Amino acid sequence: MKTALVKSWKTTVCGLIVAVILILKQIGNLLDDDPETVMSVEMILGALAALGIGVCARDNGVSSREAGAKLIVFGLCCLLLLGGCGQLANKAPSQDQVLRVTVDAYAGTMDTLTDFYKAGKIDDELVGKIDVHRKMAFMALEEWRACLRDGKPVSEAIRQFTTHFAALIEAEKILNEG
Predict the structure, then answer these.
(1) Which of 85, 95, 105 is nearest to 164 (CA)?
(2) CA–CA distance, 41 with 65 (Å, rounded to integer)
(3) Dihedrals φ, ψ of 84, to 5°?
(4) 20 to 30 Å CA-CA from 1: which of 8, 33, 58, 111?
């Protein structure tokens, strides 16, 4: 059986290339004799985020279930946005790109939960809980988009989305284990 890394090899390779480039640059900054260039922790975190996104994201034609897309994609994206990465503005993924990856992870989770529902594996109580978190997560995504469009801070929308998306991931985890 192929692993998610093999099934989604294109995104894995892209994430690895970005991470290697960013980390090598920081190693160069650390080892050079110029006091003006210092190693950036934010760049290292950005590199790890890019690697995480590359490993966890799925190629077109690979389902979320096959690729194993999980909350880590979103968590790493939030790390980029909320981790004080001002130095990454020209080198890291844009906030729009991070939002697109996040929406893809959300859609993949919803696809998986829909599959469980269609298979009759979700009871009415869990359906109700999932529906509340689905609606709240979607509203937070819309708020996130509006904040980006209007140039407003996105941290509260991200926090709201994270809360509800984590509950959806937990429901998916319970269903996968059961």
Answers:
(1) 105
(2) 33
(3) 70, 50
(4) 111
Domain ranges in the chain are 4-177
CA 112 to chain centre: 16
From CA 2, how far away is CA 101, in angstroms rounded? 23
pLDDT per residue rounded down to tens, the chain (178 residues): 345 445 667 777 777 888 888 888 888 888 888 877 788 777 787 777 777 777 666 666 665 555 555 545 555 555 555 454 444 444 556 777 777 777 877 888 888 888 888 888 888 888 888 888 888 888 988 998 898 888 888 888 888 888 888 888 888 877 877 6
Handedness of CA 157, 160, 166, 172 (dihedral sign): negative
The structure's pTM equals 0.49
